[in-house]
Amino acid sequence: MTGDRAADYRILHEAALRDYLAGLPDIAALLGGEPASWEITEVGDGNLNLVFIMKGARGGVAVKQALPYVRLVGESWPLPLSRAHYEYLALSRQAQLAPGLVPALLHHNEALALTVMELLEPHIIMRKGLVAGTQYPGFVGDITTFMARTLFFTSDLALSAAEKKQGIAAFAGNHALCKITEDLIFTDPYRIAEQNRWTAPYLDALAASLRDDMELHVAISRLKLKFMAGPEALLHGDLHTGSIMVTDHQTRVIDPEFAFYGPMGFDVGAVIANLVMAYFASAGHERSPGERAAFEAWVLETVEQVWNEFARKFLDLWRANGTGDAYPVSLFAGAQGAARLEAERQVYMQRLFADTAGFAAAKTIRRIFGLAHNIDFELIEDPKKRAVSEARAVRLARAMMVETGTFRTIADVTGAARRLRDWQPELAG
What we know:
By secondary structure, the protein is an alpha+beta fold. It is built from 16 helices and 12 strands. The chain has a 5-stranded antiparallel sheet with strand order 1-2-3-7-6, sandwiched between helices.
């Protein structure tokens, strides 16, 4: 943001935010009552932004404002306010493609990098529920619909080449957020970086081994190249269980400020990685042996269903709506053409699964050795127990990234996770 638009920006703390919303007639009417009586709570527990809940006599809203720096680090790490604009664009597009699965947009001010959204209640951040051992029966159906529709309908399988390129151009300026991903996920955990951290001293030797593992370095670099050079579809870009709000039967995807056009497996892999991490972290949260066995079985079943249902829905969309410039229908006429195209669809999905597994592994390792960690592990009070859970997750992730031929199906992933559930690593310290 430059020029006059940048001059209009100011951080809205509670009093200023109250005054601002009072000046928006639709929002003020939705809240109800006198502005002085509105309750304001700052609830942002993420790494980048301010997030407020505002409640009045009649209703409530959520308000998100981007800061001109990374909140987790401070002003020493500046960050463009334009990310709020890309988040708004992404939420708008996702609402069209997957209605009812993102919060409703109520107001957006590009100059203030501020968005007012539907207040999601009684939804909670999914990651918090998983730490508590809660199961969510509606999650699989919702998240797989969200991913299948947002990925398919922004891809070359559904769009003309011109439409796809226009989409890429609309999000191309979000490169600062992509740079964060490129560094924090694909580079820093595999080298000495000032912001890296891990459960020391127990994982010191494992951290050092990552820095020396050339096979792993090749694998992560291939994934990084695919992330940088593979604009397959519009991604959420940060689709972890901290960016999903849930009840037993409702799911809402939030926070797509990392949105850009990239490889589909990055989004799908992020969901799977965070479920697998919840599975490995579960042992550290149990108060007695076997206490969380039913929850852990549900998590692994959910991992399998996420991939299987996503793949089924994606293929169904392709069969019914495959009018994009990729795989022109005129080249696959008649029964022979239809059969050959269906075989190619299966090859496509196998390739997408391989990407998904690789990106899931990359997301796992970054959450254990990089800058931003998961509360799944962080809330395990005993650091040695935490390190054991983390080492199990890293062992699986390393195998998924390097021993790719071993993981041909999602059952191969869950089977390997199950076998590592009680593996006892050798820890430093």
